[in-house]
Amino acid sequence: MAILVGRKHEISILLDAFRSDKSELIAVYGRRRVGKTFLIREVYRDNIHFEFSGILNGSMKQQLNNFHLILSDKISGFGKPANWIEAFYQLGKYIDTLSSRKKKVIFIDEFPWLDTRKSFFLSAFDNFWNSYASKRDDLVVVICGSAASYMIKKIIKNKGGLHNRLRRRIQLIPFNLHETEQLLKQNRVNLTRYDILQLYMAIGGVPHYLEKVLPGESVAQALDRLCFDKNGFLRSEFNNVFASLFSQHENHEAIIRALAAVRKGLTRTEVLSKSKIKSGGTLTHTLQELEESGFIEKYVPYKGTKDSIYRLSDEYSMFYIKYIENTKPSTGAVWQKMHKQASYIIWSGFSYETICIKHVEQIKEGLKISGINAVHGSWIEKNTRNSAQIDLLIDRDDNVINLCEVKFYSSEYAIDKKYAGEIARKINAFSLSTKTKKSVFVTFITTYGLTSNQYSKQHVQNELKMDHLFVEL
Question: I want to staple 88 with a disulfide (CB 3.0 to 4.6 A). Which of 71, 128, 254, 344 is the partner?
Answer without folding.
Answer: 128
